[in-house]
Amino acid sequence: MAFRFSATLLLLPIIIGQALAADLYFDLPVTNAIVAPDGFPRSAIQAGPFPGLNIVAMKGDTLHINVTNELHDLTMRQSTSIHWHGLFQARTGSEDGPAFVNQCPIAPGQYYQYNFGLAEQTGTYWYHSHLSVQYVDGARGTLVIYPDDPLKHLWDVDDAGTIITLADWYHTPAAEAMEKFARDGHEPVPDSGLINGIGRYVGGPEVPWAVVNVEAGKRYRLRVVNIAAYAGFTFSIDGHSFDVIETDGIETRPRTVSSFDIFAAQRYSVVLTANQPVDNYWIRAPMVLKGGSDTLDPNNVKAILRYSGAPAVDPKTNQLVLQKGGGLREYELQTLIKPGAPGGDAPADRVIDLDFDAAGPGLWEINGIPYVPPTLPTLLKIINGATLESDFTTPEHTFVLKPNQVVELRIHGSNHGMAHPFHLHGHAFDVIKSASGPVNYVDPPRRDVVAVEKGGVIIRFLTDNPGPWFLHCHIDWHLEAGLAVVFAEAPEEQRIGNQSGIITPEWRALCPAYLALPKDKQ
Ligand SMILES: *[C@@H]1O[C@H](CO)[C@@H](O)[C@H](O)[C@H]1NC(C)=O
Ligand SMILES: *[C@@H]1O[C@H](CO)[C@@H](O)[C@H](O)[C@H]1NC(C)=O
Ligand SMILES: [Cu+2]
Questions:
Q1: Homologous superfamily of 350-515
Q2: How open is the CA angle 379-382-385, to the nearest 5 degrees?
Q3: What does the alpha-carbon distance between residue 293 and residue 284 come to, in Å, rounded to a whole number?
Q4: Which pTM does this prediction carry?
Q5: Cys-Cys link to 406, which of 272, 343, 397, 426 (CB 3.0-4.6 A)?
Q6: What is the pLDDT of residues 376-424, one digit of tens each?
Q7: Which listed ligand is nearest to 113 at the C-alpha?
């Protein structure tokens, strides 16, 4: 059975029911548009309607997403490439999206249909451009896979209205900001923070805050997604505590907290019970980042939790009312299903130390190497026979991993006063040692983005998914500055056997089309 959704239909509340695995077709036009989410009009990029088409699927579905590249604004990259953040892409590494790791970008005026199955994954995901710093200009949106059976009895409402995106927003095109970063070494500071695509900047108009509507007595699964390029956020709701139940698509044992830090590309689901007097309450998401600007008030990132029956006015609540639970500590979260790090507390098959540092203005390195993307994608090289680390150049910084091994990454380094959210493609990993807290092999949190601070982190995963997988800081300025490595996982199994990658003529056609483009169209 095949269903075709239009963008308009997806804005309606979705009906969740049990359904057979289906093939879902989406059109995702990537276009330039003038948008003003904080009242400042600028030319930007939108994926579907701004702030992004919400892609909705059911467990087991196969997605066919036709990305049409309609970009033409010369202040931004003209080509594009879309990554489906957090999806494992078993056998479909060709559809993962990172430019020059998994594919060549889609040329302007062209389209590419991404085809991939969701297998067993459920939960909260998002998608974004993975070409240079292009997603900073707006090329991003959410992707949610229902249902999540084991904890379903905990909430009454879980729909498009309970997805909350947190973003940072810049008035300058990202390419220009990146050039400045390369000159002065200061990470570009956003002009505002957005909740569900709405925010305010200092000196700007009083744009009406986003509203999340609730009814007294009901329980809501809020899916909080950090789609920012740089900022972390500290999320809280005046007068309410809530139970964390998901880290990046992985269900956790419910844990009551009054706030949590969420770093770029991370997701948390929380269950909120609307158990307070009918009124308006501030949702707060002050930004966590290094540096400041005249236009950014990092504390003025808000939205309204409005109970049905409350007047349509701004809240008068403050944060000082005591709430149950403290701030979330990542290491206290426990994975609900099949907990336990691969290999338990036995030594890993392979330990890789990753030591990162700033290497100059707009330049970051891991183990002394700033990552530079190759001209031909890592995946194409693997298909054509690349098997050893020596088959890749030094700046491609590619580690070859053997199949079915427990790999332990020890990420440490000079963090320069900020949290670096490291993201691994193709896997979720167990966070054996979080930025703070003890070592845990038994039931540590499992996720796909972990914040690395001064103390470093230790993570583990099993190499059960052949493919070329990026590991990088999700501060997009740092990724572009070289804070990345690539894992060529099981190259032989990528080529032949029952886990081999599916490679289509359409995928092969991307590189010739892209490489033939003049520079300003790339
Ligand atoms: C993708 O969209 C384009 C533009 O509408 C269309 O020409 C093309 O046939 C579509 N591709 C697929 C595979 O549906
Ligand atoms: C894939 O092949 C390997 C080796 O032939 C075998 O051990 C494994 O069970 C197969 N897996 C699946 C899912 O068929
Ligand atoms: Cu970083």
A1: Cupredoxins -  blue copper proteins (2.60.40.420)
A2: 155
A3: 20
A4: 0.95
A5: 343
A6: 999 999 999 999 999 999 999 999 999 999 999 999 989 999 999 999 9
A7: 1
